[in-house]
Target: Branched-chain amino acid ABC transporter substrate-binding protein
Amino acid sequence: MTMHYTRRTIAVGLLALGLAGLPAWAQKQYDQGASDSEIKLGNLVPYSGPASAYGAAGKAMQAYFERVNEKGGINGRKIVFITLDDAYNPAKSVEQTRKLVEQDGVLAMVGSLGSAQNLAVQKYLNARKVPQLFVNAGTTRWGDPKNFYWTMGWQPSYQSEARAYAKHILSTKPDAKIAILQQNDEFGRDYLRGFQEAMGEQFKKQVVSHLTYEISDPTIDSQMVSFKSSGADVFVNITTPKFAAQAIRKAKEMDWQPQHYLVAVSQSKEAVLRAAGFDNAKDIVSSTYVMIPGDAQAQGHPEVAEYIETLARYAPGADPNDSLNAIGYATAATMAKVLEQAGDELTRENIMKQAASLDFVPPMLYPGVDVKTSADDYFPIQKKTLIQFDGENYIALGDLYD
Model:
């Protein structure tokens, strides 16, 4: 009897030792915002104010996560996606981020929009070691793991996009007289840096007018009048959607017909070009890394049908041909991949580790574009293509550029 008891004790002891020796990934580990049943994520977008068109991205993210939850969540956990309005105001971004972290207790911030807005909270989130993932802005600052380990961008950098426009201008219109309209913040300055770098010495020689505006300005009409008077025949439009649409309409009204380069953050066919008038927007050059159902490249992709269905069900009224919806949807899919890889180790440290270990293709990315990251590469998407609006749809101008 004694011998039997001893054997059972030994067996149980060995089992306990075995469990204690299991690798960390096999044990459930949680930080604030995670549990057996749910994962809390925070997000800020401007649902109101001068950049409210960008609110579409937040609604599309919400729709994606609702579809995920209906299918059982991620590793059995439901996503609690708390998306708040910061009105594109950095001071409001600080207030809302603190609420999400300190009151709502989110595990991570994901897909928040705007350069100045994310810049305003970057040091706070890094000091608290809260992941600031897949920032919906292309400022190069989001890819600096040495100084900001807890911050990672998502889309291609503004500087690389601006370099592509500069190279296209130099190759197609080497004697161009260039006018530049730039939003006066970090978003605008980052684009300008890339454009200046690629133009080199030609920048001073060929830029005949460079004007800025504030996001609080009612219009940019006076700048547009000045551009026409400058004799510029190329227009580089570094603006957010409201002002992009104004610029397109004003150029048409004045009968000013430069070759128009429009930054990707405002190339939305629905939110910008339709608002400005498709006829007025004909021949605009922009760039993209996502596809929309109306694109020739999207035909036959099963993910496109699921995207359309998801928006129709969970974001009624959202236009699937608005690229802002495609961006939000693909961003949410990227975060879902991170959480899937994280398994039961839902710590902030492991979230960052998994975000820096991606190699996959989220839905709605342009063919040939993928997501790849590493511990020293915090730029998940590094490919785009130049596109031109033909009056109805955007047409690719060539191969992808890196």
Summary: The chain has a mean pLDDT of 93. The longest strand covers residues 38-45. The domain at 30-156+298-381 is CATH 3.40.50.2300 (Rossmann fold). The longest helix spans residues 323-342.
